[in-house]
Design a protein that fits this description.
Blueprint (H helix, E strand, L loop, with lengths): L6 E5 L3 H12 L3 E6 L15 H4 L1 E4 L2 E6 L5 H6 L3 E5 L6 H4 L3 E4 L16 E5 L4 E2 L5 E3 L10 E2 L2 E2 L18 E3 L4 E5 L6 E2 L4 E6 L10 E5 L4 E6 L5 E2 L4 E6 L11 H19 L10
Parallel strand pairs: 1-2, 1-6, 2-5, 4-5, 6-7, 7-9
Antiparallel strand pairs: 3-4, 8-11, 9-10, 12-19, 13-15, 13-18, 14-17, 15-16, 17-19
Helix pairs in contact: 1-5
């Protein structure tokens, strides 16, 4: 049985957060995911937040299950399942008193995480100041500093430019050209060619005067590894799809970046738990 003193609450269940969940779950902690009513993960095949819509979700060796209250947590943990609760504001944190709260929403801004939520608080990416908002911040920008632990200061500000994969950066991420409802033409996991229509965006009020549908084409050849769930409402400029030029990857697997961030979060937790006086390791 897992220790009753080892509860870790992770805010967010997207693909990067799932990498964090896996590391803590495999390491024997009781993990609880907190999500919103309508998660907008692009890499749905590798995101445990899909349990919000389907009741359960599986990524690699982990299963998450949507629950209605924290009373169901213990049953999930006994079954080696990660419970997921819709609680975007973190109301249950005070009730559960977890060992740590990890903000893995990756919103590029702080959506309400505070340093006093738990003895150990960790956040991924821009929008947080280590030592003020949380105890530690983890760098999420691809490159030499990816996964670096920051105990004083902030992560690199969001540049708005996606990290490079196989020579592609901005072109591989697709944003909605208009607002509306997303409808799939190609399915996530499909191999697509440049210029091929992969999804469309319909007017929010179909059938109305001047109603129209806008088809969006693939900007490059590759694997459609990310595609927003069909039927969701999007706003203009919203990230809705992701094409990976490497067609031989498993789109349902946790990414290298997510694994790196998961390991960094586990390292940060252990450091803060057992080396709180280790100031010589804390650098700006």
């Amino acid at each position: 049985m897992k220790s009753t003193k080892s509860i870790i609450i992770i805010r967010g269940g997207g693909d990067l957060a799932t990498g964090v969940v896996q590391k803590f779950h495999r390491s024997g902690f009781k993990v609880l995911i907190l999500e919103t009513q309508t998660p907008t993960a692009i890499r749905r095949g590798a995101a445990l937040c899909e349990a919000v819509y389907d009741g359960t979700a599986g990524v690699e060796d982990i299963i998450s299950r949507k629950i209605k209250s924290i009373d169901e947590c213990e049953g999930c943990w006994q079954e080696d399942v990660v419970p997921l609760l819709i609680d975007p504001s973190g109301e249950v944190i005070k009730k559960l008193k977890p060992d740590a709260v990890i903000d893995a929403i990756i919103a590029k801004r702080n959506l309400g995480t505070t340093i006093d939520m738990a003895d150990i608080t960790i956040a991924l990416g821009p929008g947080f100041e280590a030592g003020a908002d949380v105890h530690a911040v983890i760098e999420t920008k691809r490159g030499n500093d990816l996964g670096r632990l920051i105990f004083v200061g902030r992560a690199i500000p969001d540049t708005g430019v996606p990290g490079e994969i196989a020579g592609e950066s901005s072109r591989r991420v697709i944003h909605a050209p208009v607002a509306g409802i997303i409808k799939h033409i190609k399915q996530i996991g499909s191999i697509v060619e440049q210029g091929e229509a992969i999804f469309r965006i319909d007017d929010i009020k179909p059938g109305g005067r001047g109603a129209k549908s806008v088809k969006v084409q693939a900007p490059l050849n590759g694997l459609l590894r990310g595609l927003l769930r069909e039927g969701l409402q999007v706003h203009k400029g919203m990230k809705v799809a992701d094409i990976d030029p490497r067609i031989d990857i498993d789109w349902r697997a946790i990414s290298d970046k997510a694994r790196c961030l998961g390991g960094a979060a586990l390292e940060a937790y252990l450091f803060l738990k057992y080396n709180k006086q280790g100031a010589r390791y804390i650098v700006k």
